[in-house]
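Hey, I was hoping to borrow your eyes for a little while. A protein chain has come my way and I'm curious about its shape. Take your time with it, there's no hurry, and the full record follows here:
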Amino acid sequence: MNRPIVQNSDALKASAHAPDARTEKEIMDCMNSWKQAMIRRDNAIFEKLYGADLFYTHSNGKLETKAEAIDAVINGKIRFESIDIADNSIRSYGKTAMSKCRITMMLNTDGNKSTVILDVLHVWVKNSGQWQLVGRQAVRLNP
């Protein structure tokens, strides 16, 4: 007999709904802050925006912690020349929100330019009045 792992959980009782205008704006602001941090390699923004227990999963399956995800951008070879966020859909569950979007990135790796198109799910949690990214899962849409 198959049984659910979690029974009578509040998480199971929560239902998704479109966020109110304030929550939607806050999540969009967070997404724009993330975009700017990626392009500018801004450690301070990442430190504020990323939750301490972040799961940051790349389209190749590589999982990074908060420290690893920040280091990869700040000290990595890839430079993010531009990032376009489109088709953003946000759902909220109280102090948790999910943002699903299509992200097109123009990359520069040691002078070699490329474009990457991703379908990305971001999971945000509101801690002490501030939204923080606690989970990210990306799927690459172009070969």
Q: What stands out?
A: The helical segments are 10-13, 21-40, 43-49, 66-75.
